[in-house]
Amino acid sequence: MKPASKARVAVVDDHPIMRMGLRQLLESSQLVEVVGEAGSVSEALALVESVKPVDLVIVDISLPDRSGLELIRDLRCVDPDLRTLVVSSHDEKVYAERVLRAGGRGYLMKDRAPEQLLAAVGQVLEGGIFLSPAMTSRMMEALSGAKPASPISGLTDRELEVFRAIGEGKSSREISGLLGVSIRTIDAHRTHIKEKLGLRDAAELSYEAIRWMESQA
Predict the structure, then answer these.
(1) What's the fold here for domain 151-216?
(2) What secondary structure does DSSP assign to 58-121, as a single string?
(3) Which of 96, 187, 198, 201 pairs with 136 at a CA distance of 20 to 30 A?
(4) pTM of this prediction?
């Protein structure tokens, strides 16, 4: 009897130690073959093209060239059937729904137990969607209108990227270079963020962005 083939998985994270840990954990299950690692969006896209077929890509949100959300969308264009699972330290309350909207199939915080990662990988590979029970409950409450959404959830994905960069102390010029858009566009995003969060000026925006980033640590 021919043994079942292992699922082919790629790992995308900008921290080499994290990638190594994920590889060791995944391969310990004997059900997964890690076919490659990448530390950026550009590396990930090149990797997926070079080692086809890939069944699942594990993605972090924070990557040095572009965000994991953009990578998920790009991968969907490359292969609509390719599944992605986000494993990140960023708050699932802010990012999990965005990941699903981008086409991802699950979200797991990095502080969860190793068994949960294997469970999440198995569930996504079987065609399911993985979210923590708390996040599933939160999304159901939001859909029912029982619990008001956080103002942060009203930001677009690009506005959230700008907000994060402000919280990291970056200037409009630095953010424009990072995201590949004009300073005028960044300033427009800043204005929209202030309006959505009810902030009066740049000082309040910086304070709230820094405070929010500290809460993500």
Answers:
(1) Arc Repressor Mutant, subunit A (1.10.10)
(2) EE-S--SSS-HHHHHHHHHHH-TT-EEEEEESS-HHHHHHHHHHHT--BEEETTS-HHHHHHHH
(3) 198
(4) 0.78
